[in-house]
Amino acid sequence: MRRGERQLTRALAWLGCALLLGLWAVKAAADEVTGTWTGAVEAHGNYFLERSTRVIMPEFKLELESPAGVDVDVEYLVDVISSASIAQTGSDEDDVFTEYRHQAGAHLGYELDIGEPLELTAGFIFSSEDDYTSRIYLVNAALALWDRNTTISAGGSFTDDTVLSNADPLFEDGRRVVTLNGSIEQVMGPTFLLTLGYSVSVLEGFLANPYRRALKGPLPFPEDHPRERTRHAAYGKLAWFIPPSNTAVHLTHRVYVDTWKIGALNPELRVVQELHENFLLGAHYRFYIQNSAFFYQEAYPAGFDGYVTNDPKMAEHETHLFGPRIDWRLAFFEDAGMPWLARGWAVLTFDRYLSSNVFGDGYVATVGGRLPF
């Protein structure tokens, strides 16, 4: 067995043990306090495949709410990314390169009563690869008004990244990101929910890829991006439940602009149909279109003096993502004498991904489940 396969096997075995331990722990905790602890445990396996890249991502999440009203979320995931790469393998031609990204995070929340419910949340996410380390610090406040018919949220995050290069042991740089966001969620009636939001992110530091090369004439040069970028995003979502047919419809639209002169539109439609109290069938379609960055060119002339990139995400392109989703409640465990498992849900998604950029088309799939307690 190759080294990468052994690492993947160990990661999956660790995740399975953690899941079993989490199931046992939360079930025991709920029993010990006569059911006053609540929460859920989740586990998913995610798969992405396109022309030159394959990603396998198992993830695990545990949610707990204490009798005192403290919310605790803990999550872990590992990305196993296999892609064709000349720079990272040291070869003179494309070869398959596999890397691993481990991510762990925790969130802590508490609801205060200041005349109206105010939920405060803080979190930390750590992500690590052999050539990249990221630390994200998050805070958020959500104020519920008028019997929780209106919720106003505001928050922010700070990201501190360290970037290395496997091709150059002397290379080290960093990037920092400050993000501020706000949203308002309004109940419009018995069956309508409207959400509006806005976020702004300021990025500074190394914003390119240390392995990617752009051609100036016939010669390759290291990719060179501006070291500052400001990103703006506004979004809206309308959720509509149709009681006679037990159908839910979600309409979402996101508008994006940044100081690299990229603008993007991203509408999405989701429909979920209850076929049985234990079975939901859904489908969705997402469209994304953007123009190119101001410094992107398909070819740069020899001696060009300016920013250069070979990143397909900087080019004008559009993508389509669509597919079904199945949610199935595991009610049959009730007859098997395991009522606590009968509250769980299994989830299966399978999406087709069509893109006009050089990454090409692909597939995205998820299989997993959620067990509330």
Task: Please describe what this structure looks like.
The chain is mainly β. The protein has helices spanning 3-32, 339-342, and strands spanning 38-50, 53-65, 70-85, 95-113, 117-129, 132-145, 150-164, 172-189, 192-205, 213-216, 219-222, 228-242, 247-258, 263-276, 279-290, 317-329, 345-355, 362-372. The strands form 2 sheets. The protein has a 16-stranded antiparallel β-barrel with strand order 1-2-3-4-5-6-7-8-9-12-13-14-15-16-17-18. A hairpin with a 4-residue loop joins strand 2 (53-65) and strand 3 (70-85). It starts with a helix and ends with a strand.
Helix-strand layout with pairing:
Elements lengths: L2 H30 L5 E13 L2 E13 L4 E16 L9 E19 L3 E13 L2 E14 L4 E15 L7 E18 L2 E14 L7 E4 L2 E4 L5 E15 L4 E12 L4 E14 L2 E12 L26 E13 L9 H4 L2 E11 L6 E11 L1
Antiparallel strand pairs: 1-2, 1-18, 2-3, 3-4, 4-5, 5-6, 6-7, 7-8, 8-9, 9-12, 10-11, 12-13, 13-14, 14-15, 15-16, 16-17, 17-18
Task: Report a brief summary of the structure.
The chain contains two helices and 18 strands. The chain has helices spanning 3-32, 339-342, and strands spanning 38-50, 53-65, 70-85, 95-113, 117-129, 132-145, 150-164, 172-189, 192-205, 213-216, 219-222, 228-242, 247-258, 263-276, 279-290, 317-329, 345-355, 362-372.
